[in-house]
Each structure stands twice: as structure tokens, then as C-alpha cells.
Amino acid sequence: MKAWWQRFKQGFHIRYSAWLLQGLSRITFWSNKFKQRLSPLGMGVATAILLTLVFGANIKLSSIYQLFALITALLLMALFVVFLKSRFKRFRQPALKVKRLLPPFATVDEPVSYRIQVDNASRQDFYQLNIGEVSALPKPSLFSFLHSQEPLEHERNWYDRHTGFYRFVWLQDILRGGVFTSQNIAYIKAGETYTSTMQFTPLRRGYIHLSAIRLRFPEPLGLVYSWVTLARQDSLLALPKAYRLPEQIISGGKRTYQQGGVSQASHVGNAEEFSRLREYREGDSPRHIFWPSLARVSKPLVKEYQDEYFTRAALILDNFADESAHALFEEAISVAAGFAMQADHHDMLLDLMFVGADKHAEHQLAGRAIAHAEDLLETLATLELSAASFADLSQVVLAQNQRLSGCVLIVLAWDEARQALYKQLQALSIPTQVFLILEEKVNPPKIDADAIHILRMGHIQQDLDKLL
């Protein structure tokens, strides 16, 4: 009986959430329509119409109906003017051109400014324009609506939590890429170019595609907008946010032999670091002969090279999970980004290892001028979950064991495959730090090793600070 009741409650909750999701999608669609068409003053007039309609319904007891008739006539007149403008081509397509000036990168949850140039090639002046990005209103999936939680949802009241309106809007913003703001332009004279500074806050990592810009023109009363949409395709890469990491974890690890030495920092292949000149010996490679020495000392000298020892750490990112672990994976990306940010500040190489889109294990080397932190962050920004086997990644890691000074393993679970890799690295005497990302309400597994750290969602930075 109890099991039947649990199944009934679960089925009812899913059907109710699906109905709620459909209703919220329609509400936000029509709300966006009104916000795009009505100016702030027009929204105030529409609100006044509703209030006067309610309080002036009985015309025998109140004269509020007269105010209702007046403001309704004003709004209808404004709508009629906009309707006429839409019927005439010279009003519908003004000679305007737009161009975005985007920064090279943005960072999740950090506001970024960019500029839009508006070129007025027409013969008329435009006043009180509003400029903004055109973004679709994507519908979140039922799975994400059921299992996602808005960052401030725990602080909202019972009604807001159970209707899920703010969660729905937050999911829509994530699917769009972030939160865009519009700007007002006082005027653009004929033949002039105006530059407007826009604000944008990315809410997810990866490429954010911008398709069009909308210019809205108010009618004479300033209540309703007519608009023109100008297509302009651009893309902006949003880098993941990065957590602050303890210094001793970043700089730890022994210095080991690296084939090619320091020259790996600026050359490709097996070139070595120049050390000194010595006399030619039989069997020396002609490529190493210092030919100007024949003219100076009348005998050939050979350039001698030496190999160097320095730190090379592996940053192993676990991206093996299904879609239900998406939130955990995003936190793992941010922890990995914290290590990538330090690649340029330490005398070491950092080798990022993961499984790519083709389900094959890959690695990317950075540090010592081979590549910069931005290159690792770009890779992390576009990395997705994989359904491949964790064993593929383990093989790539173990194949590099002779070059590694240490390892950082960021995992989403602590099963036999992850534990086996950790034990193999320990057996090879490679210092390894493990960061296990867990949901806040999940009981952590019993772990005795000091090198294995548990990070709880919602408290990642606090848990990292405890390692100082």
C-alpha cells in the first residue's frame, strides 16, 4: 500500500510539473510580448486601466469609469499609430546599421561590457530609441525543471518555491546564455554614428551566440514601441568561473626529468636546451656543428645541449556521468579552472586530461610558454559530459607516468574505477591529490587518506579554504 502511494505521488508530481511548465512557458511568452511592445510609461497606463476597470465597474457609485475611458482611448490611439507605421515601408525599415564590439572572453557570473555602434544612414533624426539584444525564449526540459534549483530558491516563500516561476525564468536565462540589458539612446542625428555601451552577465560557460539587435522607436505619446530587427551574427566565449585554491596544492610535486628540457617551453619536438660549445668529436651530428667556429678558430666546434628537470603535473578531470550529474560536473569544471588559472604563475607544466567529444581520451599541455591559462580555460569552457569508459582516461594518465611530478584528480564519484587509478598512481610514487565533488545532502564515503578531499556543492570555496 505504501509503495503504491509513493508511485501515485511521484506520478502526480510529474504530471503537475509538466502542466506547470506549460503554463509558465505561455505566461513568460505573453509577458515578453507586452514588455517589448509597451514602454515603462505604457506599462503604467496598462496597469491603471486594470485598476480603474476594477474600481469603476459600478458607474452609478463612482466616476472612475471616466478615467478608465480616457486612458484606454490614449492607449488605443498609440497602438493605432504603431499599426499605421507597420503598414508603411518607410517607417518599417529605417536605414540603420549596427555592429557589435565584443571582448575576447567573458566569465560566468561576472558582468561584462561591450559596445554596439549604430550607424544612421537615413536622412531623418531618431529620438528616444531603445536598443537591445534579440533573444529567444527557450523552454526548459521537464527533467531540468524538476531537478534544478535556483541559487536563491531556498530563500523564497512557499508559493514561489512550489510554483517554480523564478526557477523557470532562471533556466530560460541559462539556455539563452545569460542576462542581457537594454539601453536608451537620447537621439541619433542623420548621417551620424552612435556607440552604446551594453551590459551582459553570462550564466553558463561555452559559446554564446548573438543573432540580432532590436531598435525600438516610441510613438508620439511614448506609450508603445514600434521596432526594427537587424540581423547580426556574433559569438562570445564564456569561460567557467574559477575557485581560489590553496598555494601548497598548486606548487606541490617533485621535479622530474623531461625529455627536451626547458626548450619544451618554446619549441615543438625533441629539441634540447643549449649548454656550451666543445670540440668536434667523431660521430657528432652535423646539425650541431657551430660553423662560424671554422672561420674564427680554424676548427669545428659543436653545440652541446643538456636536459632539464622541472615540475609537470597532471590535472585529470572526470567527465564520465549522465545528465543527472550536470550540476556536479559544473562545479568540477570550476575547481579545474582554479588550477588552470595558476598555470602561468608557477614554474611548471600543467597537463589537462579528459575525454573529448569523440569519446577518446585527450590531453592538453600548458605552462612555461607552451600555452597559456586561457587555452586551458577555453577547453574547459566547451567540455561536456561523456558516456565513455573511465578506463580510457586511466590508460592515458598511466602512459604519461614517467613524466609526471604529481597528479590532481577531480572526480564526481568514488567507485572502483576511480579508486583503482588512485592506487596505481600511489604505487608509482606519484603524489596525487583527489577532489571528490558531492551533493550537499549526500553522505560522504569513509575515506582515511589525507590526500582525498571532499567538496560539497554550495560550500566548495569554504571547503577549499579549510585546506590552507
Mind sketching the topology for me?
Layout: H1 2-37, H2 40-55, H3 64-86, H4 89-92, E1 96-101, E2 105-107, E3 112-120, E4 126-134, H5 142-147, H6 158-163, H7 165-176, E5 178-180, E6 183-188, E7 193-202, E8 206-218, E9 225-239, H8 247-251, E10 256-258, E11 273-279, E12 289-290, H9 292-297, E13 301-306, E14 308-317, H10 326-341, E15 348-355, E16 361-366, H11 373-382, H12 390-399, E17 406-411, H13 416-427, E18 432-438, E19 452-456, H14 460-465
Helix pairs in contact: 2-3, 10-11, 12-13
Description of the molecule:
The protein has helices at 2-37, 40-55, 64-86, 89-92, 142-147, 158-163, 165-176, 247-251, 292-297, 326-341, 373-382, 390-399, 416-427, 460-465, and strands at residues 96-101, 105-107, 112-120, 126-134, 178-180, 183-188, 193-202, 206-218, 225-239, 256-258, 273-279, 289-290, 301-306, 308-317, 348-355, 361-366, 406-411, 432-438, 452-456. With 468 residues, the protein is α/β, with parallel strands linked by helices. It has three domains: 2-37 and 93-239, Immunoglobulins (Immunoglobulin-like, Sandwich); 247-253 and 309-465, 3-Layer(aba) Sandwich (Rossmann fold); 273-306, no CATH class. The strands form four sheets. Strands 10, 14, 15, 16, 17, 18 and 19 form a seven-stranded mixed beta sheet that branches. Strand 8 and strand 9 form a beta hairpin.
Condensed summary:
The protein is an alpha/beta fold and 468 residues long. The protein is built from 14 helices and 19 strands.
